[in-house]
Amino acid sequence: MPVTLAVIIGAHGVTGEVRLKVFAEDLKPYKSFNSGTLTLKSLRHGSNGEIARIAEVNDRNAAEALRGTELTVPRSALPPLAEGEYYHADLLGLPAVSTTGEVLGRVVAIDDFGAGDVIEIERPDGKRFMVPMNLDAVPEWGETLVVDAAFAS
User: Fold this and answer.
1) How many helices (H) and strands (E) does the chain have?
2) Is the pLDDT of residue 48 over 80?
């Protein structure tokens, strides 16, 4: 399953550089994206985001044509996780249950409003609620996200 590490948000200059919105801590370890169709040549910090040179993009028109393109890598290309860490991609779509066994729904989004990740769960009836992603609220995750019943209201 591919994991999105960045998205091209526009062209930068006339030589084919692109502006990126980056979702990873560091994009530099990755050189090949989208099953080898895009190759990262260089990456630098710009005034409003990261600026990248993609080998296959040689002018502003080609860069503009890629606006909205997600840069993906296979899940297996990501570094291993330490105990208690997770990748957002691993949580999205997980079924969620309470510590009392109540089926809560599925994880549909993960946001960070500045104080840490917040998990959004959609109930079977379509209503959504949010839970902080910490050990008090979410004591377990793996094949299923287990939410403390006190947070599942």
Assistant:
1) 2, 12
2) no
